[in-house]
Structure formats: structure tokens, C-alpha cells
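FORM 12-B: Structure-to-Sequence Request
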């Protein structure tokens, strides 16, 4: 696929993929980005495709590392109702969107340190695993750069604050399971090991395709 393809749907990286544990780097709104397996795109194009990927997966947020890009960018949406993942529902998520967010180089500041543990939390990179009791600050302020290069700031509370904290964690290589006792991760060990195997298989296939593409391009140059 090329950068001119509209609304690409990216594969979402699974638990065990090294990119999900790396600290992401800053980026500029004028950068050209290349999601592995796809052609070069503008930041705006990548953000648009990330939103489509998020909607396709019935999620509320998606960070760039989750599509293989180690950059400080995440997208999110606020819906008419607060549902963590909306899995198994027929209603298109986009029909219920109140606001969409694209945040470059976000800086998160806690504005209410009181912890909220009332929501169930999941992750598109850890499909099928949900846990309650993940402690999140009740309110935060996020300062970020938008797609036009302008600095913006938003305050959020309750569920939206949780979404922003979850996605911000991804930019620093953290999962929501990291906020829970180690035995919770141990309870899901079999499922997580399966995801790790799938992640390795995907990366091996991606590497093989990239090598084949490089060899083909070299042949075309001769």
C-alpha cells in the first residue's frame, strides 16, 4: 500500500512486541513517518489511519507504538457513553463519537491525585484481557501539539482521564497490567505467552516481506 491509500487499517502490535516496551521519541507535525509494512505517510495521514484502526478494533484510544511506530503520538475518542472497548456490539463506533483527539508529544499533568479504581480496563495490544482496580488519577491536564503544529491543552476527568493516562503509558513502554500486582499478570500467563508467540511470528513475517521488497527494488535498479 502507498501513502495515497486513504484510511489504512494497521495491524495492532501484541504484547511481547519489543516496540511496546520502548520509550517513544518526540516528533514534529511536519515529519514523514513509515509504519512498518506500509509506505511513507505524513503525520496527518498516519493519525487518520490510526483513528480508523482504533474504530475498526472498537477501541477508545491507540498509541503509535501499538502500530509499530516508536513516536510520541496517540489518538483517542470520547463517545456518547463510556464503554471500555465496546466489543461485540453492532453499532458503528463513529456514529457515537463526541470528540476525536490527536496528540503529538503530549505532556500529562495530574490535577487530582485521588486514585480511581472503579473502571474495568483493557488494551488493544492485550486483546481479551480485562481487569478492574487499575489505579488512575481522577483528573489530568494534557498539553500537546496538534496536527497544525499548535500547542493545545485539555483537562479531563473520570473515564476520559483514564484513557489519556492509558495511552500516555504506551509512549513510555508501559501496560495497564504494570499498575497491578504481579500475580495478576501471572494469572494471564498462558494467554500472554500465546500473544508473545504471535508477536514473534508477525515480526518474522514482516522482516521476510521487507527483505523481499528490498531485493525486488534492488533488482529493478539493475
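FORM 12-B RESPONSE
SEQUENCE OUT:
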Amino acid at each position: 500500500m502507498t501513502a495515497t491509500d486513504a484510511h489504512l487499517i494497521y495491524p495492532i502490535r501484541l504484547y511481547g512486541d519489543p516496540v511496546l516496551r520502548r520509550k517513544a521519541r518526540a516528533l514534529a507535525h511536519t515529519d514523514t513517518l513509515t509504519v512498518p509494512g506500509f509506505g511513507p505517510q505524513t503525520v496527518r495521514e498516519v493519525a487518520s489511519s490510526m483513528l480508523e484502526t482504533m474504530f475498526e478494533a472498537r477501541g477508545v484510544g491507540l498509541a503509535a507504538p501499538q502500530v509499530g511506530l516508536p513516536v510520541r503520538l496517540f489518538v483517542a475518542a470520547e463517545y456518547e457513553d463510556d464503554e471500555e472497548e465496546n466489543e461485540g456490539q453492532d453499532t458503528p463506533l463513529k456514529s457515537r463519537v463526541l470528540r476525536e483527539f490527536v496528540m503529538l508529544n503530549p505532556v500529562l499533568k495530574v490535577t487530582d491525585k485521588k486514585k480511581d479504581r472503579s473502571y474495568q480496563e483493557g488494551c488493544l495490544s492485550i486483546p481479551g484481557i480485562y481487569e478492574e482496580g487499575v489505579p488512575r488519577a481522577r483528573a489530568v491536564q494534557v498539553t500537546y501539539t496538534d496536527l497544525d503544529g499548535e500547542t493545545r491543552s485539555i483537562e479531563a476527568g473520570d473515564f476520559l482521564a483514564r484513557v489519556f493516562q492509558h495511552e500516555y503509558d504506551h509512549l513510555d513502554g508501559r501496560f495497564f497490567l504494570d499498575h497491578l500486582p504481579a500475580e495478576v499478570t501471572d494469572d494471564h500467563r498462558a494467554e500472554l505467552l500465546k500473544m508473545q508467540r504471535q508477536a514473534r511470528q508477525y515480526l518474522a513475517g514482516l522482516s521476510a516481506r521487507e527483505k523481499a521488497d528490498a531485493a525486488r527494488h534492488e533488482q529493478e535498479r539493475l
